[in-house]
């Protein structure tokens, strides 16, 4: 068995500006809290960093030039792991997971094993003229689509995601609606993820959802099921942008000052395990981006007999403050 210990200090060396932030683990212990696993019911599969976009806020620095892509051999390992672990949900992400040639094999493989399959999509990739077959597959397997849609403002949207991406995303959105996605009672769930377009925390989720629902419907006739509002994680390209724009220290302080101890119980890392394109395991996709292995140990999916044990340790670093800021990131 191959395993190695990764120190907390190694991960925190990532800070490019002098910053006196209380370590996240200390913030937890000052509130009498520990971050340990509950029952792990979700397997998140990150199939790689290849993406058709190069968003400014991307914690993985994904883009068209990235070579990491889950190969068929690892996809088969993922399916075997899902079979022996009986996860309720399989959550597929990337990059743009639609661009992985093995995406169909992955969906087909996990379909009989999990009650819910989710696909994280940037929308624009669904409208590149190459996804007709995949779209039909998503519909017939009732895959839940979780689509990024940061802003209703075209200029802000494009400044984060690239020129022209707003209009392409609107067209993809309409295509999904025409297939039945996002309509109540269709059984085809379409959820949105919105995030701030700068170095600030998101506004209230309920208010954002109300505004998006109203404006998308009124201006473009678009409908969706739910909206989730997430803060940007200071890793990857977003971290580089924070540093370059001189916002890194202020952003980290904002996150840590907004620490909400009540958010800890519902953190997604307590019920999710994330597998990377090479088959190694992490407590979440942010720890994957930060190179922080599951529980601080490098373990391959092929070595795991089942889901991580309840009460097992979760690796943390300062980017975890993103998840506990305000209402939290669950
Ligand atoms: S945020 Fe999503 S859509 Fe944007 S570059 Fe990263 S993976 Fe691609
Ligand atoms: S980044 Fe968030 S989800 Fe990941 S381990 Fe830290 S608190 Fe948990």
Structure description:
This protein has helices at residues 8-12, 24-30, 72-85, 103-110, 132-140, 154-161, 165-179, 205-220, 236-244, 248-257, 285-290, and strands spanning 42-46, 89-93, 116-121, 144-148, 190-194, 226-229, 272-275, 281-282. With 330 residues, the protein is of the alpha/beta class. The protein has one domain: TIM Barrel (Alpha-Beta Barrel). The protein has an 8-stranded mixed sheet with strand order 6-5-4-3-2-1-7-8. The radius of gyration is 19 Å and the shape is globular. The model is unreliable at 1-15 (pLDDT under 50). Bound molecules: iron/sulfur cluster (2 copies). One iron/sulfur cluster (SF4) is lined by residues 51, 53-55, 58, 60, 62-63, 94-96, 122, 148. One iron/sulfur cluster binds next to helix 11.
Strand order of the largest sheet: 6-5-4-3-2-1-7-8
How much of the sequence is in beta strands?
5-15%
> What is the total number of structural domains?
1
Which class in CATH terms? Alpha Beta
Number of helical elements: 11
- Run of helices and strands: HHEHEHEHEHHEHEHHEEH
Gross morphology:
globular
- The termini sit apart by 32 Å
